[in-house]
Amino acid sequence: MKNFTNLFSVLLLSASLAHGQKNAVVDAIVKEATENSQLEKLGHELMDGIGPRLVGSPKMQAANDWAVAKYTNWGIPARNEKWGEWRGWERGISHIDMVAPWVKSLEGTQLAWSPSTNGKTVTGDVIIVPDVADSLAFASWLPNVKGKFVLVSMNQPTGRPDYNWEEFGTKDSFEKMKKARTAQTEGWTERIKKTGYSSRTLPVALEKAGAVGIVTCNWSRGFGVNKIFSAYTKKIPTVDIALEDYGLLYRLTESGNKPKLNVRADSKEKGVVPTYNTVAEIKGTNPSEYVMLSAHFDSWDGGTGATDNGTGTLVMMEAMRILKKVYPNPKRTILVGHWGSEEQGLNGSRAFVEDHPEIVANLQALFNQDNGTGRVVNITGQGYLHAYDFITRWLAAVPEDIKKGIETKFPGTPGGGGSDFASFVAVGAPGFSISSLSWSYGNYTWHTNRDTYDKIVFDDVRNNAMLAAILVYMACEDPVKTSREKSVLPVNSRTGEPGKWPEQRKATRKGGLD
Ligand SMILES: [Zn+2]
Fold first, then answer.
1. How far is the CA of 450 from the centre of ligand 1 (A)?
2. pLDDT value at residue 492
3. How much is the pLDDT for 12?
4. Measured in angstroms, how far is the CA atom of residue 130 from the centroid of ligand 1?
């Protein structure tokens, strides 16, 4: 009987929405998001005021505290939940100058967790990892690095992205460049391999041999973009230099012009520091069932983490603010998770899943966004057999101009990683990714030095905040609990084995400390 009633109310709900009947809450969400948007202000405070949010850094802690203060201010109870510990590190200034054969301040920065130059400016010649016969030859060459900065990245043949070549180059010259680059890239991989080290262990070997710094160029295949990850050295700084300046150094070194570098890298080791997820909550009238918003809060620190994942963070915060205002007494409890250390392997969300089985077991749905500033254009059922029923039902309430670009795929395949929804999918809980269009995310902003406030497209973020709020509202009101029944996954075409659901992986609770 209960089921019958539920089914009946679902039909009623769907029917009324399908016939374009006004929904007062949906209208109020759109009105609040449009007329009283806080996105620009929140974006400025988080990206410009606080800045990048590397796990273990004081800025991550500042962001956690800022979010709690924001929610408190909006009347939404919030807390920082400790889930682990990390190597604490605070980024200071990076100054990199070429001082011979002529003077130029170079564009570059130390990598995350890079050792400092101990308050001094270090001067040294530049040397390139050589193309030697084997590891023995490399070992006998190694003493040459003493007192020098070592270039360990390939010198890119062009600083123009492929789309620029495609537009202006002749077909022949474009093909020729690509062929030469492929050969050069393979040659460089070989060169590193022949040293007997990997790109991970080579910097440490160079450090042990007396190098004063490691210089990389991790070009991201766009104008002016490099990806900025973490250093492997223990005592000497590792700096990444923009392609233009790296090429200059490389060519001058190769031609025997003996460039000299001045490098100052300041940073502070902060010992072992606690790491947190920020969680906020709007209690439901049925408080033991949950609908969740989700976005990781941490970032890499070459830029300010504006689109990875500042924008996802803004979407969830703004959706929470709006929901509290126009839908303060939800049927199910609304939770938001701003996760720590996604970038090192979904650690904050995996820890939450391990620590809160009661929430995970009673989760109606979770919506995660983490692929840039763009409008949401893809939602899949993550392999859940009946996802079509409820997601379609919820999407029916979303106004056409918010959802018109969205393509759905059901049942879809379960995501094994990529972002925090996967931590929930792995334990069979209904976690979904609301996935954005690109805005050149992969090359231009993802983990780059250009992931900054100016790349945020606020109209798209606003669109996504409305979408997230409406989906949460619908998931809260739905009289039916979502089904977790898994679809039979297609046979893996590579192995011939039946498809397997992703396995739960343990959170790393102590990071960067070895
Ligand atoms: Zn991300």
1. 15
2. 87
3. 53
4. 36
* Whether residue 4 has pLDDT greater than 70: no
Q: Determine whether 187 is exposed, middle or buried from the number of CB atoms within 10 Å of its CB (0-12, 13-18, 19+).
A: exposed
How remote is the CA of residue 434 from the centroid of ligand 1, in Å?
13
**Residue 92 is assigned to a structural domain of this protein:** no
Q: Is residue 298 part of a domain?
A: yes
Question: What is the pLDDT confidence band of residue 19, given thresholds at 50, 70 and 90?
Answer: very low
Look at residue 214 and tell me if it is in a domain. yes
Task: Report CA(167)–ligand 1 centroid distance (Å).
Answer: 31
In the reported structure, the alpha carbon of residue 296 is separated from the centroid of ligand 1 by a whole-number distance in angstroms of: 7
Q: What confidence score (pLDDT) does residue 378 get? A: 98
CB-based contacts of 305, cutoff 8 Å, min separation 6 = 47, 52, 53, 298, 299, 451
Least trusted range by pLDDT, from 11-20, 231-240, 290-299? 11-20
Handedness of CA 348, 351, 353, 356 (dihedral sign): negative
Dump pLDDT digits (tens) for 214-228: 999 999 999 999 999
CA of 87 to the centre of ligand 1 (A): 20
Is it true that the peptide bond before 77 is cis, omega within 30 degrees of 0?
A: no
The domain that holds 141 is classified in CATH as 3.50.30
What's the 311 CA to ligand 1 centre distance in angstroms?
10
For residue 321, the CA-to-ligand 1 centroid distance in Å is: 22
Residues 379 and 312 in one domain: yes
Q: Domain boundary residue among 258, 293, 309? A: 258
Average pLDDT over residues 332-342: 98
The CA distance from 406 to 471, in Å, is: 13
Cα-to-centroid distance, 370 and ligand 1 (Å): 5
